[in-house]
Amino acid sequence: MGIKSTQHPFFISIFFLGIFLFAWHVATISPPFDPTGKTDEELLVMEFNGDIMQTDDGQYVWNPEKEKVKGVPGPMTVMEKAWVELNEAFVIKGTNDHGIAFLVGYTVSRFSVGFLTASVVAILVGIILGLNQMLFRALNPFIQILKPISPLAWMPLLLYTVKDPKWTAILVVFMAAVWPTLATTAFGVNSLRKEYLQVADILQLSWFKRLYKVILPGAAPTIVNGLRISFGSALVAVVPAEMLLGELGVGYLSWIEWNNLDIAGVIFAILVVGTVGVVLDSGFNKLAGLVTYRE
Amino acid sequence: MSFLSIDHMSKYFPSHSGDGDVCIFEDVTVKVHKGEFVTVIGHSGCGKSTLLNIIAGLETPTEGGAILNGQEVTGPGLDRMVVFQNFALMPWMTVYQNIALAVRSAYPTWSSQEIKAHVQKYITLVGLQGAETKKPTALSGGMKQRVGLARAFSIEPKVLLLDEPFAQIDALTRGVIQEELVQMWNATRNTVFMVTHDVDEAILLSDRIMLMTNGPSARIAEIVDVTIPRPRSRETIIEDEHYYKIRNHIIHFLVRHASHGQEGESGDAAERSGPVEINFRDQATKEYETTASH
Predict the structure, then answer these.
(1) In this structure, is residue A24 part of a structural domain?
(2) The domain spanning residue B260 has which CATH number?
(3) Are strands B71-72 and B63-68 parallel, antiparallel or unpaired?
(4) For chain B, how many structural domains are there in total?
(5) Which residues in B61-219 belong to E strands, given as ranges?
C-alpha cells in the first residue's frame, strides 16, 4: 500500500471511499445470463415470466426492468439515479413529486421551525428553573420522565389534537429538541459560579442586564451542549416523522422510493439525508463557537 | 460615630445533622473609621469570610447587624465592592469589559467617552495597559487580581472589602501586588476591610488587625494596633522595631488557637469580656502578656 500515515487524511478518506465503492460494485454485479443447460421450454417460461428477454440477434439476456428490483443496486445505478434527480432538482412534476431541492427545503424549514421554537422555549424555561432551586427540584421528575420518551411516540396524540400533519411534523421535531436543552440550561444556570451573581448583585445590575450580561453568557457553554444534543435528536426525528405523516421532505423521499420499489432511489435519499445533516451540523458548530468561552 | 460599625453580630448556620444550629461567630463588635485599613486574621473556617460577606450584603447575620455611614446594611450595593479570592472576573468578557461593566453600573449617567477614560485610568493604575482586550483566561493569577482591584477601585466605593485577595497568587507576585495595593490605597485613602490568613500581608497593609479565634463560636479576641508609620514598603517595614513584636504576637496567637482554640480560649478571662486592644507603643501590652502567658 502506498499510503503513508503522514499524508493528509483527505487522501486516506478517498482511498477508503474507493475501496468501498469498488467492493460495493463487485458485490452487486450480476453475471450475464447463461442459457447453457436450459431447455427451450424452460427459457420460454423464463421469458414469459419476464426474467429474461430476447435481443434482436436472438440471444437471451436478463430483463433490465426486473434487474432493478433484484438484489441491491450497484454504485453506478445509484449515481445514474442521483444524476437524474439532481437534474430535476427544481422541477415540480405533480402534487407529490417535487424536485430534490424543494424536498430539502421543506425538511430544513420544518426542522428549523421546530428546533428554534423548542430552543427558545427550553432556554427560557431552563433559566427560570435554573434560578429557582425549589421549582427545579419540583419539576425535575417530570422532565426526567418526559425526556426519554421518543418524540415519535407523541405523534398519534399530536396528530389527533392538532389535526394537521404539517404542524404535527413540526411538533414532533419540537418534542425531540425541547428536553435536552431544557435540562442542560437549568443545570448550567444553576451551577453558574455564585461569584458571578454576587458581582451582579453588588453592581446592582437590572434584571435584564443581569440576564444577558451575566447569566446567559455564563451558562452559554452548557446551553450550547444541550442545544447540540437537541439538534441531533431533532435531526433524527424529522425523517421518520415525514415518513409516517407523508409530508414532503427528504425523509418522505426515502419512503416514496421504497413504495416505488426503487432501491437506488432509497439509497440516494439516505445520502441526501446525510448531506443535509452535515451542512446543518457545521452551521450549528460555527454559531456555537461564537458563544463559548474558557474558564 | 464610626464610619462602619459591626454591632453585636452573630451568625448561625443550620447544622448538617439537623439538631439545632451551629454558631459560626458570636457577638462580634467592630468599629472602623473612615479611611482606615482594618484586617481580620484567623484560621480557615473561623467565619471571617462570612463576616465580610455580611458587610457586603451577600449574606445576612442571625443577630446584630452592620451599619455603614449611619445606614444599616440590608443587601449588596455599589458602596461596598468586594475583591474576591478567586477573582470573580467574567471569563467571557475582556479586561476592559469587566471593568467597564462596573463603571457603567456605578455611573449610569456617564457618556461612553467618560466611561472609557475612567476605565483606562484604572487600567493604567494597575499597569495593565495593552491587556485591555485580553480575556481573563489569558492572564496570570496576579494580573487577574490586578483587574479585580481595578474593578473595585474604579467604582470608588465607600468601603472596599478584600476577601483573601492574594491567597491564590504565587508568593513572589503576591509581594509586588501588595505593594501596588499600598500605593493605590495611599492615593485614594479608601476605607478597607480585609480578611486574610497571611500575617505579613496584614502588617504591611493594615492600621489595625483583629485576631479571630477558631470556630465554632468564633470571636474577635484581640485588636492589634499596627504601630508602624506609613508610608510602608516590604523592604523598610521589617526594620521597624515594632514589626517583629507585632508579627510574633500574632503568630503566637494563631499557634495557640491552632488546635481549634480550646486551651487558648478557656484560659483567657479577658476574651470573654470583649476584645483586648494591643498597642506596642504603650506599655499596656506588658500587662496583657503576663496574663496571657500563664
Answers:
(1) no
(2) 3.40.50.300
(3) antiparallel
(4) 2
(5) 63-68, 71-72, 80-83, 159-163, 191-196, 208-212
Rounded distance, CA A286 to CA A288, Å?
5
Interchain CB distance below 8 Å, A293 and B88: no
Nine cell digits for residue B3: 464610619
Closest CB from A195, A196, A204 relative to B77 = A204
Exposure of A211 by Cβ count < 10 A (0-12 exposed, 13-18 middle, 19+ buried)? middle
- Number of domains, chain A: 2
Q: Domain check: are B103 and B212 in the same one?
A: no
- The boundaries of the domain holding residue B84 are 80-156
Where do the DSSP E strands lie in chain A?
52-54, 60-62, 92-94, 97-98
Residue B293 lies in a domain: no
A195 shares contact with chain B (CB less than 8 Å): yes
Chain A interface includes B107 (CB < 8 A): no
Q: Rounded to an integer, what distance in angstroms lies between the CA atom of residue A276 and that of residue A109?
A: 12
Same domain, A37 and A147: no
Whether A82 and A271 have beta carbons less than 8 Å apart is answered as yes
Asked whether residue B186 is domain-assigned, the answer is: no
Q: Around Cβ A163, how many Cβ atoms within 10 Å? A: 9
Predicted confidence (pLDDT) per residue in B243-266, tens digit: 999 999 999 998 888 765 444 444
Given an 8 Å threshold on Cβ–Cβ distance, is A293 in contact with B137? yes
Across residues B91-102, what is the average pLDDT?
Answer: 95
Closest chain A residue to the Cα of B137, Cα to Cα? A295
Domain that holds residue A55: 31-67
**A188 contacts chain B (CB < 8 A):** no
Q: Does a structural domain hold residue B177?
A: no
Interface of B with A in 66-85 (CB under 8 A): 75-78, 80-82, 84
Q: What is the pLDDT of residues A209-256, one digit of tens each?
A: 999 899 999 999 899 989 999 999 998 999 999 988 888 888 888 888
- Is residue B138 within 8 angstroms of chain A, CB to CB? no
**CA B200/CA B8 separation, integer angstroms:** 29
Q: Are residues A137 and A36 in the same domain?
A: no
End-to-end CA distance of chain A: 45
Each residue's pLDDT tens digit, A51-94: 888 887 778 888 877 776 677 888 888 888 889 888 887 888 87
Pair B30, B144 in one domain:
no
Residue of B nearest to A194 (CA): B88
pLDDT at residue B260, rounded to an integer: 53
